Amino acid sequence: GERLTGSREELEGVLDALIQERGLRFQLASLEEFVMELEGCRNELAKMEKQAEALRDKRDGFASLQSQAESLLERQQRIVSDIRTICQTVQDSADMQAAFKSVGDALAGLNPFR
User: Fold this and answer.
1) Which of 26, 80, 98, 110 is the most buried (most CB within 10 A)?
2) In this structure, what are the phi and psi dihedrals at residue 18, rounded to the nearest 5 degrees?
3) CA distances from 92 to 13, 20, 88, 103 (A)
4) pTM metric for this prediction
5) How does DSSP assign 43-96, residue by residue?
6) Cα 109–chain centre separation
């Protein structure tokens, strides 16, 4: 199946940001759902793989199983894409906060009363 890119540390950083940032709670809940769904797909595919071994000689059953497996793989790809979107949202949020801080720091430096 398709894998998420990024190191474990990067993914843990995304998770930490989702947990800490109140504005990203919806994405955190979505991520949890996507991960559970992805795990379900992987379990179902593993089961289908075992069934496929038994059906190799029976064309009709094997073709049906193959079609189901292809649907699950497509679903898995959509889930991975959704997870990547959440990771990008977290990165964009962090970048925006850093930019606002830089602007705030620059404006504070202009304050003659400081």
Assistant:
1) 80
2) -65, -40
3) 13, 15, 6, 16
4) 0.65
5) HHHHHHHHHHHHHTT-HHHHHHHHHHHHHHHHHHHHHHHHHHHHHHHHHHHHHH
6) 40
CB distance 108 to 36 below 8 Å: no
Angle at 74 between CA 68 and CA 79, to 5 degrees: 125
Q: Which residues are CB-neighbours of 48 under 8 A, at least 6 positions away?
A: 65, 68, 69, 72
DSSP state letter for 20? H
Instruction: Report d(CA 38, CA 33) in Å as an integer.
Output: 9
Taking a C-beta distance cutoff of 8 angstroms, is the pair 14, 34 a contact?
Answer: no
Polymer length of the chain = 114
Per-residue pLDDT tens digits for 59-88: 777 788 888 899 999 999 999 999 989 888
Helices (H) and strands (E) in the chain, counts: 3, 0
